[in-house]
Design a protein that fits this description.
It is a single chain. This protein is mainly α. It contains 14 helices and no strands.
Length: 391
């Protein structure tokens, strides 16, 4: 293997005057702390959309995509961790995805491109979390069992679009566009710690994802809702599970949404608080507390406003997966690894990375088109600020 690239330390990784990093990304935790945050960021309440994703893929393709995307994300996160560890050993400990990409790829515009992608992800996750929380509360405060039907869309074109939308949703479920920020919370050196965290995370991931996808799709088939709790608590007819069990499910979903919302919001807070705060003064000093409180409140209000105005839970998951998670989690890690370690063009690593980059570039383009197409088509079914959430 060729010697990795050696570059000048990226200026923003110097933390002396970096309020965003000092106040938000504290580097003092152990591997299980990173594992917890990875698990919280991935194994979230979006698991409720897995049967809906299977609805557009069917059993065979659904299992294949769920397994393939799970394996690719583990591999990509491992490569990302290797790149971060290499930079740390070279004296360039990066704590942000955007500065890592700009350093390795040597392009100033890449820094702002990653900021844009992360903003799409973090804002989309925030909106999606608030939307799902409101939907769960509505369902609980208010179909008899349908025959099982696993048929797909009638036309070939609709079937293709539904498949790519479903793949984008699964990518959003597996996605975690904040791995460098999570690794930044580890006490240095971070070597080896993230691998333990990833093993912990993906063990939980596969156990929960397969059980939720198989059981829910087996019961509801192509009638699966983008929020499977709605299928369990239909508007008409009795609930399909004991009220106490459904009530606990709603409570746990709300608690998990609070956790995942906080995890993803940290990146947005770190970006917003970099300039208005003064790192030389205390985190909770009057000079810093007031602007931080105002900015965070405005961010949450904005996400809540958008969730109330545009009730598209399944569609938003597809758009966020295609535009946000696929580039950051399925393309960038392989590109960064090849640029950093320069594997030989005759090596298996180089070609598998190139294959993943090309494949998911195509999947991302098709997924973006199909997800936005579905969003436009579903726009006819709602009114602004409607209480009806469109699948």
């Amino acid at each position: 293997m060729a010697k990795p690239l050696q570059r000048v330390p990226f200026p923003e990784s110097r933390l002396e005057s970096d309020a965003g990093a000092t106040f938000v990304l504290e580097s003092k935790w152990k591997w299980w702390h990173a594992g917890y945050h990875l698990t919280t960021a991935i194994v979230g309440s979006t698991i409720l959309t897995l049967p809906y994703a299977f609805r557009g893929l069917g059993w065979v393709l659904g299992f294949f995509c769920l397994t393939a995307l799970g394996c690719v994300t583990f591999y990509s996160y491992y490569l990302m961790s290797r790149v971060l560890e290499h930079c740390e050993r070279a004296g360039r400990r990066h704590i942000r995805f955007r500065e890592l990409a700009a350093d390795v790829l040597g392009s100033g515009w890449m820094f702002y491109f990653v900021i844009f992608i992360q903003t799409v992800i973090n804002t989309g996750v925030g909106i999606r979390a608030i939307l799902l929380a409101g939907e769960c509360l509505k369902v609980y405060l208010k179909m008899p069992l349908l025959p099982r039907d696993y048929s797909l869309e009638p036309s070939s074109s609709s079937r293709v679009f539904s498949a790519f939308t479903s793949i984008s949703i699964i990518a959003a479920i597996f996605g975690n566009g904040i791995l460098p920020e999570i690794q930044a919370t580890l006490a240095p050196p971070a070597t080896g710690k993230m691998v333990k965290g990833l093993l912990m995370c993906h063990t939980v991931t596969f156990l929960t994802f397969y059980s939720a996808a198989v059981s829910s799709y087996w019961v509801f088939g192509n009638k699966s809702n983008s929020n499977i709790l709605k299928s369990l608590m239909p508007d008409e007819g009795p609930s399909l599970a004991p009220t106490m069990v459904l009530g606990l499910a709603v409570v746990f979903v709300l608690l998990q949404l609070l956790a995942i919302g906080l995890v993803y919001s940290q990146v947005a807070y770190e970006i917003m608080e970099k300039q208005p705060t003064d790192v030389k003064q205390g985190m909770f000093s009057k000079r810093n507390l007031i602007p931080r409180l105002i900015l965070r409140s405005l961010y949450v209000i904005f996400c809540g406003f958008m969730a109330a105005m545009l009730p598209f839970f399944g569609d938003i998951s597809g758009v966020v997966g295609a535009i946000g998670f696929i580039p950051l989690d399925f393309i960038f890690p392989m590109l960064l690894y090849n640029m950093t370690y320069k594997p030989s063009r005759s090596s298996f690593t180089y070609w598998i990375n190139l294959f993943i980059i090309i494949t998911f570039t195509g999947v991302g383009i098709m997924g973006s088109f199909s997800s936005i197409r579905k969003l436009v088509l579903d726009a006819n079914q709602f009114k602004l600020f409607s209480s009806y959430v469109v699948d």
